[in-house]
Amino acid sequence: MKKTIALSKLKPGMKVVGIDKSWLETPFLSHHFVVRSEKDIDKLRESGVRLVTVEIDNPVPETEDSQTIPEAPERGLEELPDEDPGKERNILSLQRETSRLLVRAFQQVRINGFLPTDEIRSHVRETVDFLLHNRHAISLLSDIHENDDETYVHSANTMFMATAFAIRHQMEDAECFRWGLAALLHDVGKTRVPEHILKKPGPLDLLEWEIMHQHPIYGFQILRKNPDPEIHGLAAQVAVEHHERMNGSGYPHHLSLDAVHPVSRSLMVLDIYEALTGHRVYRSRSTPRKVIHYLMNDYSDRVSVPVILEVASMVGIFPVGTFVETEDGEILMIQKYEDGENYRGQMTVLKIFGPGKKILPRPEKRKIPHLDPTTVLRTYDYRSIGLTQEQWEYLMGGTPGIT
Protein backbone atom coordinates (compact mmCIF):
# COMPACT_ATOMS: atom_id res chain seq x y z
CA MET A 1 0.00 0.00 0.00
CA LYS A 2 1.23 3.52 -0.88
CA LYS A 3 0.67 6.46 1.44
CA THR A 4 1.66 10.13 1.24
CA ILE A 5 2.99 11.60 4.47
CA ALA A 6 4.68 14.76 5.68
CA LEU A 7 8.46 14.69 5.59
CA SER A 8 8.49 15.03 9.38
CA LYS A 9 6.87 11.58 9.56
CA LEU A 10 9.55 9.92 7.43
CA LYS A 11 11.80 7.49 9.30
CA PRO A 12 14.89 5.42 8.40
CA GLY A 13 13.86 2.07 6.95
CA MET A 14 10.85 3.43 5.05
CA LYS A 15 10.69 2.89 1.28
CA VAL A 16 10.12 6.12 -0.66
CA VAL A 17 8.30 5.75 -3.98
CA GLY A 18 7.45 9.40 -4.71
CA ILE A 19 8.36 13.00 -3.86
CA ASP A 20 6.43 16.26 -4.18
CA LYS A 21 9.15 17.68 -6.41
CA SER A 22 9.96 17.26 -10.05
CA TRP A 23 12.66 14.69 -10.69
CA LEU A 24 14.81 17.45 -12.24
CA GLU A 25 14.48 19.64 -9.13
CA THR A 26 16.25 17.16 -6.85
CA PRO A 27 19.77 15.72 -6.77
CA PHE A 28 18.39 12.18 -6.54
CA LEU A 29 18.83 9.93 -9.56
CA SER A 30 15.74 7.96 -8.55
CA HIS A 31 12.71 8.80 -6.42
CA HIS A 32 12.42 5.13 -5.43
CA PHE A 33 14.75 4.27 -2.56
CA VAL A 34 14.94 3.04 1.02
CA VAL A 35 15.77 5.68 3.62
CA ARG A 36 19.02 4.49 5.18
CA SER A 37 19.63 7.22 7.78
CA GLU A 38 18.65 10.67 9.00
CA LYS A 39 21.13 12.07 6.48
CA ASP A 40 18.85 10.93 3.65
CA ILE A 41 15.95 12.80 5.27
CA ASP A 42 18.13 15.90 5.66
CA LYS A 43 18.93 15.80 1.93
CA LEU A 44 15.21 15.69 1.14
CA ARG A 45 14.57 18.63 3.47
CA GLU A 46 17.41 20.65 1.90
CA SER A 47 15.84 20.05 -1.53
CA GLY A 48 12.58 21.62 -0.36
CA VAL A 49 10.65 18.36 -0.15
CA ARG A 50 7.60 18.55 2.13
CA LEU A 51 5.60 15.44 1.20
CA VAL A 52 6.80 11.96 0.31
CA THR A 53 4.92 8.88 -0.84
CA VAL A 54 6.01 5.70 0.92
CA GLU A 55 5.21 2.04 0.49
CA ILE A 56 3.98 0.39 3.68
CA ASP A 57 3.03 -3.19 4.49
CA ASN A 58 0.47 -2.42 7.19
CA PRO A 59 -1.99 0.45 6.58
CA VAL A 60 -2.21 3.10 9.33
CA PRO A 61 -5.11 5.47 10.09
CA GLU A 62 -5.29 8.72 8.17
CA THR A 63 -3.85 11.79 9.92
CA GLU A 64 -4.06 15.47 9.23
CA ASP A 65 -0.62 15.27 7.63
CA SER A 66 -1.73 12.63 5.14
CA GLN A 67 -3.31 13.17 1.79
CA THR A 68 -3.75 11.22 -1.38
CA ILE A 69 -1.78 12.26 -4.43
CA PRO A 70 -2.60 10.66 -7.78
CA GLU A 71 0.24 8.54 -9.03
CA ALA A 72 2.12 10.09 -11.94
CA PRO A 73 2.49 7.95 -15.05
CA GLU A 74 5.84 6.32 -15.63
CA ARG A 75 8.09 8.51 -17.79
CA GLY A 76 9.97 6.87 -20.59
CA LEU A 77 10.96 3.22 -21.01
CA GLU A 78 7.26 2.61 -21.54
CA GLU A 79 7.82 -0.72 -23.26
CA LEU A 80 9.50 -2.28 -20.22
CA PRO A 81 7.53 -5.13 -18.59
CA ASP A 82 6.31 -5.11 -15.01
CA GLU A 83 8.11 -7.37 -12.56
CA ASP A 84 6.76 -10.92 -12.61
CA PRO A 85 6.56 -12.26 -9.04
CA GLY A 86 6.29 -15.81 -10.37
CA LYS A 87 9.55 -15.62 -12.29
CA GLU A 88 11.76 -18.68 -12.00
CA ARG A 89 14.91 -18.71 -9.90
CA ASN A 90 17.56 -16.13 -10.70
CA ILE A 91 20.84 -15.02 -9.16
CA LEU A 92 19.07 -12.75 -6.65
CA SER A 93 16.69 -15.43 -5.38
CA LEU A 94 19.59 -17.89 -5.30
CA GLN A 95 21.60 -15.42 -3.25
CA ARG A 96 18.75 -15.05 -0.78
CA GLU A 97 18.43 -18.85 -0.53
CA THR A 98 22.17 -19.11 0.07
CA SER A 99 22.08 -16.44 2.76
CA ARG A 100 19.20 -18.17 4.55
CA LEU A 101 21.06 -21.47 4.38
CA LEU A 102 24.15 -19.88 5.90
CA VAL A 103 22.12 -18.30 8.69
CA ARG A 104 20.85 -21.76 9.65
CA ALA A 105 24.21 -23.47 9.11
CA PHE A 106 26.25 -20.94 11.07
CA GLN A 107 23.71 -20.98 13.89
CA GLN A 108 24.04 -24.74 14.06
CA VAL A 109 27.83 -24.38 14.24
CA ARG A 110 27.43 -21.96 17.14
CA ILE A 111 25.19 -24.43 18.96
CA ASN A 112 26.93 -27.77 18.43
CA GLY A 113 29.97 -27.10 16.21
CA PHE A 114 28.67 -29.05 13.20
CA LEU A 115 27.50 -28.07 9.71
CA PRO A 116 24.44 -29.43 7.84
CA THR A 117 26.76 -31.00 5.27
CA ASP A 118 24.21 -32.63 2.96
CA GLU A 119 22.17 -29.44 2.61
CA ILE A 120 25.29 -27.37 1.90
CA ARG A 121 26.61 -29.79 -0.72
CA SER A 122 23.22 -29.92 -2.45
CA HIS A 123 23.00 -26.15 -2.58
CA VAL A 124 26.51 -25.72 -3.99
CA ARG A 125 25.70 -28.27 -6.72
CA GLU A 126 22.59 -26.26 -7.64
CA THR A 127 24.69 -23.09 -7.79
CA VAL A 128 27.27 -24.65 -10.09
CA ASP A 129 24.51 -25.91 -12.39
CA PHE A 130 22.81 -22.50 -12.40
CA LEU A 131 26.03 -20.61 -13.29
CA LEU A 132 26.94 -23.14 -15.99
CA HIS A 133 23.66 -22.24 -17.70
CA ASN A 134 23.70 -18.51 -16.82
CA ARG A 135 27.24 -17.34 -17.49
CA HIS A 136 26.51 -13.60 -17.12
CA ALA A 137 24.35 -13.86 -13.99
CA ILE A 138 27.32 -12.79 -11.86
CA SER A 139 26.60 -9.17 -12.95
CA LEU A 140 23.37 -9.14 -10.92
CA LEU A 141 24.71 -9.76 -7.42
CA SER A 142 22.69 -7.92 -4.80
CA ASP A 143 24.06 -5.07 -2.72
CA ILE A 144 25.36 -6.18 0.67
CA HIS A 145 23.22 -3.70 2.61
CA GLU A 146 20.01 -5.46 1.58
CA ASN A 147 20.65 -8.16 4.17
CA ASP A 148 20.72 -7.90 7.95
CA ASP A 149 24.08 -9.66 8.27
CA GLU A 150 26.77 -8.93 5.72
CA THR A 151 28.77 -12.08 6.57
CA TYR A 152 26.18 -14.32 4.93
CA VAL A 153 25.75 -12.30 1.73
CA HIS A 154 29.52 -11.86 1.43
CA SER A 155 30.04 -15.62 1.65
CA ALA A 156 27.24 -16.21 -0.85
CA ASN A 157 28.63 -13.69 -3.35
CA THR A 158 32.17 -15.02 -2.92
CA MET A 159 30.88 -18.51 -3.70
CA PHE A 160 29.19 -17.25 -6.89
CA MET A 161 32.35 -15.47 -7.99
CA ALA A 162 34.63 -18.41 -7.19
CA THR A 163 32.35 -20.79 -9.07
CA ALA A 164 32.18 -18.42 -12.06
CA PHE A 165 35.98 -18.09 -11.92
CA ALA A 166 36.38 -21.88 -12.07
CA ILE A 167 33.83 -22.18 -14.89
CA ARG A 168 35.66 -19.46 -16.81
CA HIS A 169 38.83 -21.57 -16.60
CA GLN A 170 36.90 -24.53 -18.05
CA MET A 171 37.41 -26.69 -14.99
CA GLU A 172 35.48 -29.91 -14.63
CA ASP A 173 32.13 -29.66 -12.86
CA ALA A 174 33.53 -31.51 -9.83
CA GLU A 175 36.35 -28.97 -9.52
CA CYS A 176 33.92 -26.05 -9.88
CA PHE A 177 31.97 -27.63 -7.03
CA ARG A 178 35.07 -27.79 -4.83
CA TRP A 179 35.82 -24.10 -5.50
CA GLY A 180 32.25 -23.12 -4.66
CA LEU A 181 32.18 -25.22 -1.50
CA ALA A 182 35.47 -23.78 -0.22
CA ALA A 183 34.34 -20.22 -0.98
CA LEU A 184 30.98 -20.65 0.72
CA LEU A 185 32.63 -21.83 3.96
CA HIS A 186 35.76 -19.65 3.97
CA ASP A 187 34.43 -17.36 6.75
CA VAL A 188 32.76 -20.01 8.94
CA GLY A 189 35.32 -19.19 11.64
CA LYS A 190 33.51 -15.90 12.23
CA THR A 191 30.87 -17.91 14.10
CA ARG A 192 33.31 -17.83 17.01
CA VAL A 193 33.92 -14.07 16.79
CA PRO A 194 31.67 -11.99 19.08
CA GLU A 195 28.80 -10.27 17.29
CA HIS A 196 29.74 -6.82 18.59
CA ILE A 197 33.12 -7.10 16.83
CA LEU A 198 31.67 -8.34 13.55
CA LYS A 199 29.14 -5.51 13.41
CA LYS A 200 31.17 -2.72 14.98
CA PRO A 201 30.47 0.46 12.96
CA GLY A 202 33.93 1.95 13.59
CA PRO A 203 37.56 0.75 13.44
CA LEU A 204 38.51 -2.24 15.57
CA ASP A 205 40.96 -1.69 18.42
CA LEU A 206 44.08 -3.84 18.84
CA LEU A 207 42.41 -6.43 21.06
CA GLU A 208 39.45 -6.71 18.69
CA TRP A 209 41.81 -7.17 15.74
CA GLU A 210 43.61 -9.95 17.60
CA ILE A 211 40.30 -11.73 18.04
CA MET A 212 39.26 -11.13 14.41
CA HIS A 213 42.60 -12.47 13.18
CA GLN A 214 41.76 -15.80 14.80
CA HIS A 215 38.77 -16.51 12.54
CA PRO A 216 40.84 -18.40 9.89
CA ILE A 217 42.11 -20.74 12.62
CA TYR A 218 38.61 -21.13 14.04
CA GLY A 219 37.34 -21.94 10.54
CA PHE A 220 40.05 -24.57 10.04
CA GLN A 221 39.19 -26.18 13.38
CA ILE A 222 35.48 -26.30 12.56
CA LEU A 223 35.91 -27.70 9.05
CA ARG A 224 38.76 -30.07 9.86
CA LYS A 225 36.54 -32.21 12.07
CA ASN A 226 33.82 -32.52 9.42
CA PRO A 227 33.64 -36.08 8.01
CA ASP A 228 33.16 -34.86 4.42
CA PRO A 229 36.57 -35.19 2.67
CA GLU A 230 36.11 -32.05 0.56
CA ILE A 231 35.16 -30.00 3.61
CA HIS A 232 37.88 -31.23 5.97
CA GLY A 233 40.32 -31.10 3.04
CA LEU A 234 40.32 -28.18 0.60
CA ALA A 235 37.63 -26.10 2.34
CA ALA A 236 39.51 -26.24 5.67
CA GLN A 237 42.78 -25.32 3.96
CA VAL A 238 41.22 -22.34 2.16
CA ALA A 239 39.57 -21.18 5.40
CA VAL A 240 42.92 -20.95 7.17
CA GLU A 241 44.84 -19.51 4.19
CA HIS A 242 42.57 -16.89 2.61
CA HIS A 243 44.08 -14.01 4.62
CA GLU A 244 47.72 -14.90 3.93
CA ARG A 245 49.61 -12.43 1.72
CA MET A 246 52.62 -12.47 -0.61
CA ASN A 247 54.82 -10.19 1.53
CA GLY A 248 54.18 -12.08 4.77
CA SER A 249 51.86 -9.40 6.13
CA GLY A 250 48.89 -11.73 6.15
CA TYR A 251 47.57 -13.88 8.95
CA PRO A 252 47.39 -16.18 10.81
CA HIS A 253 50.69 -17.87 9.84
CA HIS A 254 52.37 -15.17 7.68
CA LEU A 255 52.82 -17.56 4.75
CA SER A 256 54.07 -16.57 1.30
CA LEU A 257 51.80 -17.07 -1.72
CA ASP A 258 53.73 -20.04 -3.05
CA ALA A 259 53.12 -21.81 0.26
CA VAL A 260 49.31 -21.68 0.02
CA HIS A 261 46.92 -23.70 -2.15
CA PRO A 262 46.19 -22.29 -5.65
CA VAL A 263 42.50 -22.03 -4.76
CA SER A 264 43.46 -19.90 -1.74
CA ARG A 265 45.55 -17.60 -3.97
CA SER A 266 42.57 -16.96 -6.21
CA LEU A 267 39.99 -16.81 -3.46
CA MET A 268 41.86 -14.13 -1.51
CA VAL A 269 41.48 -11.75 -4.48
CA LEU A 270 37.82 -12.63 -4.97
CA ASP A 271 37.28 -12.18 -1.23
CA ILE A 272 38.81 -8.68 -1.28
CA TYR A 273 36.99 -7.68 -4.47
CA GLU A 274 33.59 -8.75 -3.12
CA ALA A 275 34.20 -7.15 0.29
CA LEU A 276 35.19 -3.77 -1.20
CA THR A 277 32.36 -3.65 -3.75
CA GLY A 278 29.82 -4.43 -1.01
CA HIS A 279 28.51 -2.11 1.68
CA ARG A 280 29.85 -2.44 5.23
CA VAL A 281 28.65 -0.97 8.51
CA TYR A 282 31.90 1.02 8.71
CA ARG A 283 32.15 2.23 5.09
CA SER A 284 30.22 2.55 1.83
CA ARG A 285 30.78 0.35 -1.20
CA SER A 286 33.35 1.11 -3.90
CA THR A 287 32.86 0.77 -7.64
CA PRO A 288 34.43 -2.19 -9.50
CA ARG A 289 36.74 0.27 -11.32
CA LYS A 290 38.06 1.71 -8.05
CA VAL A 291 38.57 -1.72 -6.51
CA ILE A 292 40.48 -3.08 -9.51
CA HIS A 293 42.57 0.11 -9.57
CA TYR A 294 43.30 -0.30 -5.85
CA LEU A 295 44.26 -3.96 -6.24
CA MET A 296 46.60 -3.24 -9.15
CA ASN A 297 48.22 -0.10 -7.77
CA ASP A 298 48.19 -0.51 -3.99
CA TYR A 299 47.83 -4.22 -3.29
CA SER A 300 49.78 -5.99 -6.04
CA ASP A 301 52.68 -6.70 -3.68
CA ARG A 302 50.39 -8.79 -1.46
CA VAL A 303 48.24 -10.89 -3.80
CA SER A 304 48.63 -12.55 -7.19
CA VAL A 305 48.69 -10.01 -10.04
CA PRO A 306 47.62 -12.61 -12.66
CA VAL A 307 44.56 -13.36 -10.53
CA ILE A 308 43.76 -9.63 -10.25
CA LEU A 309 43.87 -9.38 -14.05
CA GLU A 310 41.68 -12.47 -14.36
CA VAL A 311 39.11 -11.01 -11.98
CA ALA A 312 39.17 -7.67 -13.85
CA SER A 313 38.67 -9.57 -17.08
CA MET A 314 35.86 -11.67 -15.61
CA VAL A 315 33.78 -8.89 -14.06
CA GLY A 316 35.02 -6.06 -16.28
CA ILE A 317 36.06 -2.67 -15.02
CA PHE A 318 32.48 -1.86 -15.95
CA PRO A 319 30.64 -5.19 -15.71
CA VAL A 320 27.86 -6.09 -18.10
CA GLY A 321 24.64 -4.57 -16.80
CA THR A 322 26.32 -1.62 -15.09
CA PHE A 323 24.94 1.90 -15.67
CA VAL A 324 27.60 4.59 -16.16
CA GLU A 325 27.18 8.36 -16.08
CA THR A 326 29.42 10.21 -18.53
CA GLU A 327 30.81 13.74 -18.38
CA ASP A 328 28.03 15.13 -20.58
CA GLY A 329 25.33 13.78 -18.23
CA GLU A 330 24.32 10.78 -20.32
CA ILE A 331 23.66 7.49 -18.55
CA LEU A 332 24.47 4.34 -20.48
CA MET A 333 23.99 0.68 -19.66
CA ILE A 334 26.74 -1.76 -20.70
CA GLN A 335 24.77 -4.40 -22.58
CA LYS A 336 27.43 -6.50 -24.28
CA TYR A 337 31.15 -6.69 -25.09
CA GLU A 338 32.42 -7.87 -28.46
CA ASP A 339 34.77 -10.21 -26.61
CA GLY A 340 32.09 -11.80 -24.46
CA GLU A 341 34.46 -14.07 -22.60
CA ASN A 342 36.82 -11.30 -21.53
CA TYR A 343 34.56 -8.21 -21.52
CA ARG A 344 36.96 -6.35 -23.79
CA GLY A 345 36.96 -4.53 -27.10
CA GLN A 346 33.98 -2.91 -28.79
CA MET A 347 30.88 -2.79 -26.62
CA THR A 348 27.17 -2.35 -27.10
CA VAL A 349 25.55 0.20 -24.78
CA LEU A 350 22.02 1.42 -24.23
CA LYS A 351 21.54 5.14 -23.70
CA ILE A 352 18.84 5.49 -21.03
CA PHE A 353 19.25 9.17 -20.06
CA GLY A 354 20.31 12.04 -22.28
CA PRO A 355 22.25 15.15 -21.23
CA GLY A 356 20.78 16.99 -18.26
CA LYS A 357 19.40 13.89 -16.56
CA LYS A 358 16.60 13.67 -19.12
CA ILE A 359 15.12 10.21 -19.47
CA LEU A 360 14.56 9.05 -23.04
CA PRO A 361 11.18 7.74 -24.28
CA ARG A 362 13.00 4.67 -25.58
CA PRO A 363 16.52 3.34 -24.94
CA GLU A 364 18.95 4.02 -27.78
CA LYS A 365 21.39 1.29 -28.72
CA ARG A 366 24.87 2.17 -29.93
CA LYS A 367 28.24 0.52 -30.39
CA ILE A 368 31.39 2.18 -29.11
CA PRO A 369 35.02 1.05 -29.50
CA HIS A 370 35.73 1.37 -25.78
CA LEU A 371 34.77 3.32 -22.68
CA ASP A 372 37.44 5.67 -21.33
CA PRO A 373 37.31 5.38 -17.51
CA THR A 374 38.38 9.02 -17.18
CA THR A 375 35.11 10.13 -18.81
CA VAL A 376 32.91 8.21 -16.34
CA LEU A 377 31.72 10.25 -13.37
CA ARG A 378 30.02 7.44 -11.47
CA THR A 379 28.39 4.03 -11.83
CA TYR A 380 24.98 2.73 -10.74
CA ASP A 381 23.14 -0.54 -10.53
CA TYR A 382 19.60 -0.99 -11.87
CA ARG A 383 17.94 -0.25 -8.52
CA SER A 384 19.62 3.17 -8.32
CA ILE A 385 18.17 3.99 -11.74
CA GLY A 386 14.68 3.09 -10.50
CA LEU A 387 14.23 -0.06 -12.59
CA THR A 388 12.90 -3.41 -11.44
CA GLN A 389 14.89 -6.59 -11.81
CA GLU A 390 12.52 -7.69 -14.61
CA GLN A 391 13.13 -4.45 -16.52
CA TRP A 392 16.89 -4.78 -16.01
CA GLU A 393 16.86 -8.31 -17.43
CA TYR A 394 14.72 -7.08 -20.35
CA LEU A 395 17.36 -4.48 -21.21
CA MET A 396 20.15 -7.01 -20.74
CA GLY A 397 18.51 -9.39 -23.17
CA GLY A 398 18.59 -6.98 -26.09
CA THR A 399 14.88 -7.53 -26.71
CA PRO A 400 13.67 -6.48 -30.19
CA GLY A 401 12.05 -3.06 -30.17
CA ILE A 402 14.96 -1.19 -28.63
CA THR A 403 16.45 1.03 -31.31
Q: Give the class-level CATH name of the largest domain.
A: Mainly Alpha
Strand-residue proportion? 5-15%
Which range best describes the helical content: under 10%, 10-25%, 25-40%, 40-55%, 55-70% or over 70%? 40-55%
Number of helical segments? 14
Provide the domain count. Answer: 3
Taking the sheet with the most strands, its summary is: 5 strands, antiparallel
Instruction: List SSEs in N-to-C order.
Output: EEEHEHHHHHHHHHHHEEEEEHH
Terminal CA distance: 35 Å
Q: Please give the order of strands in the largest beta sheet.
A: 8-7-6-5-9
Low-pLDDT windows of residues: 59-88, 142-148, 399-403
* Shape category: globular
**Average of per-residue pLDDT values:** 80
Describe this structure in words.
It contains 14 helices and 9 strands. It folds into 3 domains: 2-55; 91-315, Hypothetical protein af1432 (Orthogonal Bundle), CATH 1.10.3210; 323-396, no CATH class. Helix 2 (91-112) runs antiparallel to helix 3 (117-133), helix 4 crosses helix 10 and helix 11 (288-298) packs antiparallel against helix 12 (305-315). It is globular and about 60 Å long. It has helices at residues 38-46, 91-112, 117-133, 150-168, 173-184, 195-198, 206-212, 215-224, 229-241, 262-277, 288-298, 305-315, 382-385, 389-396, and strands at 2-6, 15-19, 33-34, 51-55, 323-326, 331-339, 344-354, 358-368, 376-380. A hairpin with a 3-residue loop joins strand 7 and strand 8 (358-368). The chain is an alpha+beta fold and 403 residues long.
